[in-house]
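dude i think i finally got it to work??
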Amino acid sequence: DNHGSYLHSRGGNPDNNNKRDSNFQGYGRFLTNRQGEYYFRTIKPVTYPGRTPHIHFRVSVGDKKVLATQMLIKDHAMNANDGLFRSIRNEDQRKLLLAEFKPIEPTKQKWVGQLSAEFNLIVGYTPEDA
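look at this
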């Protein structure tokens, strides 16, 4: 959440007095359109003890879970120290986990200060297939 509290049974962030953000649910569900596109709105992830900022994704087709992955912030200083990120030795595979957060062009006042990131989830192909 926005306070760096990882929402699970042992959640909390001792660096932030174990505060939790009451406005953050911790998960969401969304469907793709006919082109396989999706979108959702959330906070930009923040650090919590032991991990670089990231968002978890799980893809299901019907009742079958077909993919679990994480999206990390491109160029974030903590990526290099993250155990999961370091465990991926192939640089091209590492790049698949990174998303660049960019300011949204403020066409309306409500978009001022908001960010957008693109993260492609490819099911059924490996990087070697591309």
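The beta strands are 54-61, 64-73, 98-99, 102-103, 115-116.
im so relieved honestly
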